[in-house]
Design brief:
- The complex is a heterodimer.
- By secondary structure, chain A is α+β, with helices and mostly antiparallel strands.
- Chain A has four domains: about 160 residues, no CATH class; about 230 residues, no CATH class; about 90 residues; about 100 residues.
- Chain A is built from 17 helices and nine strands.
- Chain A has a five-stranded antiparallel sheet, with no helix packed on it.
- The longest helix of chain A has about 30 residues.
- Chain A is flat, with a radius of gyration of 26 Å.
- Chain A starts with a helix and ends in a 12-residue tail after the last helix.
- By secondary structure, chain B is α/β, with parallel strands linked by helices.
- In chain B, the strands form two sheets. Chain B has a five-stranded mixed sheet.
- In chain B, strand 3, helix 2 and strand 4 form a beta-alpha-beta unit.
- Chain B is elongated, with a radius of gyration of 21 Å.
- The termini of chain B are far apart.
- The chains are: A alpha+beta, B alpha/beta.
- At the A-B interface, helix 10, helix 11 and helix 12 of A face helix 1 of B.
Chain lengths: ~650, ~180
């Protein structure tokens, strides 16, 4: 009964979303206040219907209703409650439902927190969001209904993919989806602006907080995914340039560019065409990401079922929204000419460079992600473009980006005079280079590659220069506006991230060894002694736990334990790495294979500064949140 | 105006290109997931394992040589194996070539009960409780089915549950060619 109600709610949501789309767009076009009111009310109705459907799937999973195909494929009676709930988005059908719920939630937020917007503009935004909802709800209903029954019912479920049975991964997809889908709001704002012809500084001020909110979610989602990959996959890597990772990273880069471009549009009324195009592309890349993951055209560790018919549907949606929006853009572009100019050394030109470099980075990743597919389709052979391509190519735009960022933050609008900060920046730059040398030589006893010094210098420079504003204000005893403080913190996060990446890329020590009980191996001054293994029983897996004693010189550190788990139903081995965290490094142990005779193969790693990667990302998201709380965005002036 | 249409046109072309790729995947022309087994065209790894069904006898892979045979990797714990079980019984009834089972990482008592309940499609079943033979064969999930020639060369490997279509389109042509 519950699954049928779920399907019913989904059908209802589709009809209501169609109402939201029609009355929103038509109401604004013919200036019918009552129609626009209907659009606004149907937003809540859509949300309620999708939420009901989502609850129905959650209940089916929690109650082990194995007569539902999705539950039978992704759950098991031994699966703990947390993962039964997380299984809602553990596979294709359910994660589409999550997508729909997120979209409905964003639309609801827009409907609730947009009292300051003109009624027809708000109706258009809600109309476009409704249209996107129609697309995704019909995709769900027509190709992947999560409530399809399994006849006869299964006696036992095939269990949730073990790779997903982890707390970080349970919240990673919702976070990421929130960000993905959030780009739809910026897209809707852009399309609404093109429809109404109102694309001015006020428009940019309305769009900014929504874009920022989506960006915060994307940042957190990607960081969580990276952190999970680090301790769960057992390789100690934190980024693999996997197609699915790239699919989330490209929208992030373009959304980052959009935030900066919006700042220019708001303050100076410039870059309008850029801003609109970036808003369209951020959403396109989110859709492309969904397409790449769902259609199975790319081989990835995120093994979702491949189904070309689903891929075609997403692709049709993609073409409809993107080509539609871009055609609209072609008709309106001439009216989006920016008036006013700016000097060569001004904040505008720094932000233009920022945009160009971020878009270039996203473009290079897009090429690397799609290239193998192109080669394969044209029968030029199966190739894989791996980290060697991305690592090199990605540095080309990002190194100048970080360096320019540190200076550009302090450039003034319109005409350039850096002299206000020139002295301080020079001082910070000199100190950063010295600091980089000091870190490299004193802490790691070798200078490393030129890139290492460049990386540390750039990181320190970014940290130092983002602290200029808060420091100056604090000295003068003034309160910093939230937006400025948030900006400083977000850029500080970039600095921390760069420090982390440089440290871990330059000074990681890895050793694969085989040890018998009592034997020890040493890396980077840490001695690991293998204490043996013991079996451990989990709720739906059994594991072998290895224990290690760790010494740093003469000092004994707490023991490290690492597990190799085998999930009973799917029989997949998973590694739970043992990690010792300190402020300046991680020690990482992962158990490999049983070599017989109490000997085990294992991987030992010393990873300096690796924590700063995720701390940096968290700090960036925090900066975004602080900027989001700025009063400027909450001004409730009703515009006639 | 035309200048501003460029992004739309580029995206449209990209979209059409991707549709073309998808249609080819859909028609089976292109398989991006096809992972070639390194064993293809190489001699099949030999093994001697205890028999699951006949106590105190063993299954020796050298005895199969001379005619083509199938090796099916399964386990009583594997849901997808139960899915393909009916197909295995059908293949066995055809009596075209011997079907050898490799019971992978399994409890022999449960595996025997499983075969008693659902029927035994195999001529012989080897019990690979520790999974060592499966490692030599490069097995990374059950079920997997190998086709080995009379000369003991691995001709084909299929990952996932066998279906009528797979049997008809992938296995039969190879078997026909091998027999004639």
């Amino acid at each position: 009964m519950i699954p049928e109600l779920g399907t019913l709610a989904l059908v209802l949501a589709l009809l209501l979303a169609a109402m939201q789309a029609f009355f929103g767009l038509a109401g604004a076009h013919w200036q019918q206040a009552a129609w626009m009111q209907v659009a606004r009310s149907s937003v809540l109705a859509v949300w309620l219907a999708v939420a009901a459907s989502f609850t129905a799937l959650t209940l089916s999973l929690v109650q082990h209703d194995f007569s539902v195909a999705y539950v039978a494929q992704n759950s098991n009676s031994a699966l703990p409650l947390l993962y039964r709930v997380a299984a809602v988005w553990g596979a294709h059908e359910g994660s589409l439902l999550l997508w729909a719920l997120m979209l409905a939630s964003w639309a609801l937020l827009v409907a609730l927190f947009s009292r300051g917007l003109p009624a027809d503009f708000r109706a258009r935004v809600l109309g476009v969001l409704g249209l996107i909802s129609v697309g995704f709800l019909s995709f769900t209903l027509l190709t992947s209904n999560p409530f399809a029954r399994l006849i006869p019912a299964a006696l036992e479920g095939a269990d949730l993919n073990p790779i997903l049975q982890d707390p970080a991964l349970a919240i990673h997809p919702p976070m990421l989806y929130m960000g993905y889908v959030g780009t739809a709001v910026a897209f809707a704002f852009a399309v609404a602006a093109m429809l109404s012809g109102q694309l001015d500084t006020a428009w940019a001020r309305w769009t900014r907080p929504w874009t920022l909110a989506a960006w915060v979610c994307l940042t957190l989602g990607i960081a969580l995914g990276s952190w999970w990959a680090y301790y769960e996959l057992g390789w100690g890597g934190w980024w693999f340039w996997d197609p699915v990772e790239n699919a989330s990273f490209m929208p992030w880069l373009v959304t980052t560019a959009l935030i900066h471009s919006l700042a220019v549009t708001e303050k100076r009324g410039l870059f309008k065409q850029w801003t609109v195009l970036l808003a369209i592309f951020a959403f396109s890349l989110s859709l492309l990401g969904t397409f790449l993951v769902r259609s199975g055209v790319l081989v990835s560790v995120h093994a979702f079922a491949a189904d070309p018919s689903r891929g075609l549907f997403v692709l049709a949606l993609l073409i409809f929204f993107i080509v539609g929006a871009l055609t609209l853009y072609a008709f309106r572009a001439s009216s989006l000419q920016s008036e006013g100019g700016f000097a060569v050394v001004s904040r505008e030109s720094f932000l233009l460079l920022n945009n160009a470099l971020l878009v270039a980075a996203a473009g290079l990743i897009l090429v690397g992600t799609l290239w193998p597919l192109v080669m394969d389709a044209l029968k030029l052979g199966k190739i894989s473009v791996g980290p060697p391509y991305f690592n090199v190519v990605f540095l080309v735009p990002t190194v100048p980006l970080v360096l320019l960022m540190s200076v550009g933050m302090h450039a003034s609008w319109k005409r350039g005079h850096l002299n206000l900060y020139a002295k301080r920046l020079t001082l910070i730059a000199v100190l950063s280079v010295l600091g980089a040398l000091l870190i490299a030589l004193a802490a790691y006893h070798r200078p490393g590659l030129p890139l290492t010094l460049l990386g540390f210098s750039a990181g320190l420079l970014a940290i130092g220069s983002s602290l200029i504003d808060p420091w100056a204000q604090w000295r003068r005893g003034q309160a910093l506006p939230q937006a400025v403080l948030g900006r400083a913190i977000a850029h500080l996060g970039i600095g921390l991230l760069v420090m982390g990446i440089t440290g871990v890329a330059s000074y990681t020590v890895e050793r694969d060894v085989s040890l018998a009980v009592g034997e020890s191996a040493e890396i980077a001054g840490y001695r690991f002694t293998f204490q043996g293994t013991q079996p451990v029983e989990g709720p739906n897996y059994h594991a072998i736990e290895g224990r290690f004693q760790v010494h740093e010189g003469e000092r004994t550190l707490p023991d490290l334990t690492t597990q190799k788990r085998t999930y009973r139903v799917q029989q997949n081995p998973m590694t739970q790495a043992g990690i010792a965290v300190a402020w300046n490094r991680d020690l990482f142990v992962a158990l490999g294979e049983d070599l017989g005779g109490s000997k085990w193969s294992m991987r030992l790693q010393y990873k300096p500064l690796v924590r700063y990667l995720w701390i940096g990302a968290l700090v960036m998201a925090l900066g975004g949140l602080i900027a989001l709380s700025d009063r400027r965005y909450r001004r409730q002036t009703v515009i006639p | 105006m035309w200048r501003y249409l460029t992004p739309a046109i580029v995206c449209l072309l990209l979209g059409l290109g991707l549709s073309w790729v998808l249609l080819r995947i859909g028609s089976g022309d292109l398989d991006v997931r096809e992972i070639q087994s390194p064993l293809l065209g190489k001699p099949a790894p030999e093994f001697i394992l205890p028999s699951l069904t006949e106590a105190s006898t063993s299954v020796d892979s050298r005895h199969f040589k001379g005619s083509p045979y199938l090796i099916n990797v399964w386990g009583s714990w594997c849901a997808a194996c139960r899915e393909e079980h009916a197909m295995l019984l059908k293949i066995s009834a055809l009596q075209r070539l011997p079907l050898i089972g490799l019971d992978w990482k399994d409890d022999p008592a449960i595996a025997v009960a499983y075969l008693n309940e659902w029927g035994n499609p195999y001529q012989q079943v080897a019990s690979d409780a520790e999974g060592r033979v499966a490692i030599n064969w490069g097995v990374y999930g059950a079920p997997e089915t190998f086709l080995v020639s009379g000369q003991g060369v691995v001709l084909f490997k299929f990952v996932g549950p066998l279906t009528e279509a797979v049997w008809h389109d992938k296995f039969m042509p190879l078997i026909e060619r091998e027999v004639h």
